[in-house]
Amino acid sequence: MDRSKAKREKNPLASALTPRQIVAELDKYIVGQFEAKRSVAIALRNRARRQMLEEDMQNEVSPKNIIMIGSTGVGKTEIARRLASLVDAPFIKVEASKYTEIGYVGRDVESMIRDLTETAISRVKTEQTEAVEEKAQESTEERLLDCIFPVPRSLQRRPLSQDEEDLDEPEEEDDGVMQLPFDMGGDTETEVEEAREKERNRYLKTREKFREWLRQGRLEDKPVEINVKHQNMPFVEIFSPGGIEEMDINFKDMFSNILPNQTKKRRVPVSEARTILMQEESEKLIDMDAVTNESIQRVEDSGIVFLDEIDKIAGRESRHGPDISREGVQRDILPIIEGSTVASKYGAVRTHHILFIAAGAFHVSSPSDLIPELQGRFPIRVELKSLNKDDFKSILTEPKNALVKQYAALLSTEGVEATITEDAIDEIAALAFQVNESVEDIGARRLHTIMEKLFENLFFDAPNFENKHITIDAAYVRSELSEIVKDQDLSRYIL
Known about the structure:
alpha/beta; 11% strand; flat
């Protein structure tokens, strides 16, 4: 109850994007497909809404998983990837077909949750590293100064032996011993301490000078010796049908507890030493238990799994009976989507509130060919439309860092200023649509093949151009591509 109360007080809705804002952000990178954007925006907002509920109600509200249906290249993967980056959520893309490659069910399907957890661990660790960066830099600077200008032996305090400790102990006053009322000579101990203090001041002054040079970057190429942690890991060969992931054993951690950490000296430039020492100091300051707990909580509350090519495991019953491999994969994936607990090396991860977004072309099958139990776990189905000529034109020009801008920027690195006219963009869009219709519909990816072929000669000759201003118009596009487009055999293999 305390956890849900804290979430309500924090008000996740206040920091979460509204559905309209999510769609507007997706519009910057993806053309069209409003229905798909709308569905994922609602699903994302509902996750923030769920966190505002009482804890017993939270457990009852399950995520509304989505199936996106559409041919390749229409934006299914891009929508899911951009969605995860918008909310800074743990995200992983897996292909359902890889679970059928070995035996009946191929790779362990629970590995997708373990990989998602690894992604979250990496993300949280990066955030924690940035949070302790200032302290780590201070510690790294001190260690570098110790390497560049070590403390002189005369200033190092050596540990006293037992006899010296006994001598240092103050003796009890003996009233029978006569005390002389005058000084017999110079105090040697005081003179030694004064000389030591002078040397310490000279050392600190010189050290501060080196610190100033270090901050100015004047010592970057200076070689220094540093102690680097080194551990020889024994080679272990494992014979297991499902691989090491099924064993769920972290051999690295296991052997690190058995074998002592060893250090070896390396002579490297200051610039490289700073990177190594910075990493070591950051790891000392990071609480890995807190990182693990935060990561698992993020995975359970806001993780997104994009399950691509789900149509490849939608086996249709034929005269030979159902495909055991495909149906087996579906039945293995089902418990994870329904909600189960997956064991990982960081602890147990519950999948009850992870959002699953599935996608597939469904050319030779349909979502109804999935087993009924799996169909029921994907209540939202969205069909993405195939791209037409106007869509291609929009993709070329409208998104942030659109293709036309990218290719012009690449040429500008050679000092060549390329101007792509409006009629050239129309021609490129028309050719892309024509090839998709006549050869095979691969969606927006067709634009990449056409643009690469169009700019091939320009990229090759750009360093040698005398004229640094080039205009690409419809005539140039036709001269480069029209013959290839007309020849079906050439367009099949080249475009």
